[in-house]
Amino acid sequence: MAWIHLTSQEQLEEAINLSETKPQLFFKHSTRCIISKMALQAFESSRVLDSVAADFYLLDLLNYRTISNEIANRLNIIHQSPQAIMLSKNEVIYSETHDRIDGSRVQQILDSI
């Protein structure tokens, strides 16, 4: 499974709606931040992206900050970077930042749904 690049408000709205039937994960990534790069690499190395139990969206914060702000507003979560947020049935079921982002934990949550 490859990342779906989140690039529009419409795409965000669709993903939130899709969470009714399938979990949706948003990974907010700053392409200029070494901490974000390390968190992204650790998440990818966990192999959770191989799961078909969720859709995985990668948001480039530098190019799409307005979408990041909309995620924060819609989901009532303070913006951070890097940040991983997972929705199921329009509810946040996982939210972590920086080195606390854990692909293995995301996989455990997906396995339990």
Task: Set down the secondary structure blueprint.
Elements: E1 4-5, H1 9-18, E2 24-29, H2 34-45, E3 55-60, H3 65-75, E4 83-88, E5 91-97, H4 103-112
Parallel strand pairs: 1-3, 2-3
Antiparallel strand pairs: 2-4, 4-5
Percent of sequence in beta strands: 15-25%
Mean pLDDT: 96
Helix content: 25-40%
Biggest β-sheet strands, sense, barrel: 5 strands, mixed
N-to-C span? 19 Å
The CATH architecture term is: 3-Layer(aba) Sandwich
Radius of gyration: 13 Å
H/E series: EHEHEHEEH
Structural class: alpha/beta
CATH class equals Alpha Beta
Q: What assembly state would you assign to the polypeptide chains in this entry?
A: single chain
CATH homologous superfamily classification? Glutaredoxin
Number of DSSP E strands: 5
Strand order of the largest sheet: 1-3-2-4-5
Shape assignment: globular
Which regions have little confidence, pLDDT < 50, spanning 5+ residues? none
CATH topology: Glutaredoxin
Give a description of the structure.
By secondary structure, the protein is an alpha/beta fold. The protein has one domain (4-112): Glutaredoxin (3-Layer(aba) Sandwich). 38% of the residues lie in helices and 24% in strands. It is built from four helices and five strands. It has helices at 9-18, 34-45, 65-75, 103-112, and strands at residues 4-5, 24-29, 55-60, 83-88, 91-97. It has a five-stranded mixed β-sheet with strand order 1-3-2-4-5, sandwiched between helices. Strand 2, helix 2 and strand 3 form a beta-alpha-beta unit. The longest helix is centred in the middle third of the chain and has 12 residues, at 34-45. The radius of gyration is 13 Å and the shape is globular. The protein starts with a strand and ends with a helix. The model has no long low-confidence stretch (mean pLDDT 96).
